[in-house]
Design goal:
The chain is of the alpha/beta class and 513 residues long. The chain folds into two domains: 221 residues, Rossmann fold; 272 residues, 3-Layer(aba) Sandwich (UDP-N-acetylmuramoyl-L-alanine:D-glutamate ligase), CATH 3.40.1190. 42% of the residues lie in helices and 15% in strands. The strands form two sheets. Strands 1-9-18-17-16-15-14-13-10-11-12 form an eleven-stranded mixed beta sheet, with helices on both faces. Bound molecules: ligand NPW, adenosine-5'-diphosphate (ADP) and potassium ion (K). The site of adenosine-5'-diphosphate has 19 residues, from helix 15 and helix 16.
Length: 513
């Protein structure tokens, strides 16, 4: 699914009306009807008071359509207009009249704090104050209205976007955003739903199709693309019946130093669990027995030094390499990395301390094989690309960096984001239980495991991020969040593969029944 900017959505709106010979008003009716259907399907005529707060733009217009329909279906609905300017949109005005025709009353006009209505905790609030047309932070009594809405215990449903938030730029004032319990977004989710500073205001959302011009949506370069189950299913390559272990590649995991050999264990196991035919771990001498015991399937090569990696000597050509987890940043290790980068032709995942080595020795960047996959967490990213003022600038800097150095960057976090050239892919799986030591080591092993099997670097990146989050989700079914460890993610990689097609099997069963 694609994510568009507010400007692109306004353009889609315009093109749809022109090409499909419908009016803006028709589109608003469609949008409002979708929201009404969603509510009606859940409320089933319940007489819970519904308070709809409308602005004076098209978001407010949507709110008026919903209010009219709820009224027509016998719901207990009250409509308020936050009359913050007299520049009411045309479609708002038409629907304002239509509400009056149906309810025989004008909605309640609000022009100051005195007009705020009483709201009981069990009431429902619909937020149609501002949509994607917000162009400055709400101030004065409008901000107070948002805060008043937030102070109630009512269920809050935002139309299109929580009022006070922008679709594609940072918040100006976090105190002036509706704290929606749920958001119903038209046609596509907004970029701000997925980034830490703004996404926290959108704990749950659904997308409602409103029939914007398919050609425009299809041909327009989006701000980002969402990777969810339908996309992930398409990445999957079936294993062949006559395959042998040589078919699925030989992954090399270069990881560990004294006290951090576990990183190599997690990564090597994850590579195997993701389907790599063979896995070799290259570790300092002190890691030999640990590896041979903890991952008996893996072969182990060791450095000549006991407690750190100083020279990576191989006796085979790896099909993919994951390097950096727990290796430290000592000068000898940096030299070993430099040699690896300049001599290897294998696709490579570069993580953790290898990224820190690069940050401290920027000349290494020029030596990276093209389309190497860098997997920084926010701290490592900052050391690579420099500081940012907000999440949106972070993405811009990351894209510029990826383009300049011809690499793929995986920005890890609650919604892991993959950047390649000018494009962004946003992962949708994962949970806060995965904020635990070693879970990144698992991801690196998984990416390398996919690379080894011949997945191209971009697909390996987005598919591994999806499966990694999905394995984490599967693990929570029996463990919850707190008890989840990186090893549990590894143990549930198989379940993540199975889950990819679980729904389809269910559907097939139903079809045959
Ligand atoms: N294609 C689609 O997706 C479809 C979208 N649809 C709906 O349209 C919505 C977008 O509507 P929209 O463009 O009319 O803007 P909206 O968000 O209602 O508000 C803008 C108004 O607020 C004002 N204003 C702004 N900031 C302000 C502030 N801080 N404080 C005070 N005022 C402020 C601004 O006035 P001005 O800047 O001129 O003073 C303007 O009057 C979209 O989210 C969706 O719900 C559907 O109907 C159909 C298809
Ligand atoms: N709140 C969260 N929701 C989803 N995934 C998360 C969350 N926190 C962390 N993760 C995932 O866990 C991994 C953490 O990686 P990293 O910080 O490198 O861990 P480590 O260095 O301990 O291996 C990343 O893949 C990240 O996307
Ligand atoms: K809204």
């Amino acid at each position: 699914m694609k994510i568009f900017s507010a400007a692109q959505l306004h353009e889609a709106d315009k093109i749809t009306t022109q090409k499909h010979n419908i009016t803006q008003l028709d589109l608003m009716e469609r949008a409002g009807t979708q929201i009404f259907n969603w509510l009606h399907g859940r409320m089933q005529g319940a007489q819970v008071p519904v308070h709809i707060f409308c602005g004076i733009g098209n978001n407010g217009g949507d709110g008026l359509v919903v209010g009219r329909m709820l009224h027509e279906h016998g719901y207990n609905v009250k409509i308020y207009i936050a009359n913050f300017t007299d520049k009411r949109s045309k479609c708002f005005l038409v629907n304002y009249d239509r509400v009056k025709d149906v309810t025989k009353n004008w909605p309640t006009l609000m022009t100051s704090e005195e007009d705020f209505p009483e709201i009981s905790p069990e009431d429902i609030i619909i937020d149609a104050l501002f949509g994607i047309g917000l162009n400055r932070p709400p101030e004065g009594w409008v901000k107070k209205l948002i805060q008043y809405i937030n102070s109630t215990k009512s269920f809050k449903l935002s139309i299109d976007i929580p009022s006070g938030m922008y679709a594609d730029k940072a918040l100006d004032d976090p105190e002036a955003v509706v704290r929606a319990n749920h958001t119903l977004a038209f046609q596509a989710p907004k970029l701000s739903f997925f980034l830490p500073e703004t996404g926290k205001f959108v704990p749950y959302f659904e997308v409602l199709e409103i029939g914007l011009d398919p050609e425009y949506l299809h041909t327009t370069e989006p701000l980002a693309q969402i990777i969810a189950k339908p996309e992930a299913q398409q990445f999957y390559k079936q294993r062949e019946k006559y395959a042998h272990k040589g078919t699925y590649g030989h992954t090399l995991v270069i990881a560990g130093s004294y006290g951090k050999i576990g990183a190599a264990v997690l990564s090597a196991k994850a590579s195997y669990k993701t389907g790599s035919g063979l896995v070799t771990a290259f570790v300092p001498e002190c890691g030999y027995t640990v590896l041979q015991t903890a991952v008996p399937e893996a072969m182990t090569l060791t450095d000549k030094e006991d407690d750190l990696i100083t020279e990576i000597k191989l006796d085979f050509e790896p099909s993919a390499i994951a390097v950096g987890m727990g290796i430290g940043t000592k000068a000898e290790t940096v030299r070993a990395l430099e040699k690896l980068f300049t001599t290897t032709k294998s696709p490579m995942v570069i993580d953790a301390d290898a990224l820190n080595c690069i940050s401290e020795n920027k000349s290494l960047l020029e030596k990276l094989p093209e389309l190497s996959i860098l997997t920084p967490h926010p701290g490592e990213l900052k050391r690579l690309v420099g500081d940012w003022k907000d999440d949106f600038e972070k993405l811009e800097k990351t894209k510029a960096f990826a383009k300049q150095h011809n690499v793929i960057i995986i920005v890890k976090g609650a919604n892991t984001i993959v950047a390649i050239e000018n494009r962004l892919y946003i992962n949708t799986t994962g949970n806060p239980g995965m904020a635990t030591g070693g879970s990144g080591d698992v991801l690196s092993g998984m990416i390398a495991g996919l690379l080894s099997q011949g997945y191209d670097p971009l697909i390996a990146s987005v598919f591994a991020a999806y499966l990694h989050g999905s394995a984490g989700n599967q693990a929570t079914h029996t463990l919850g969040f707190e008890a989840l460890t990186a090893s549990d993610i590894v143990e549930h990689i198989g379940a993540a593969f199975l889950e990819l097609f679980a729904m389809k099997q269910e559907e097939d069963k139903n079809k045959n029944a």
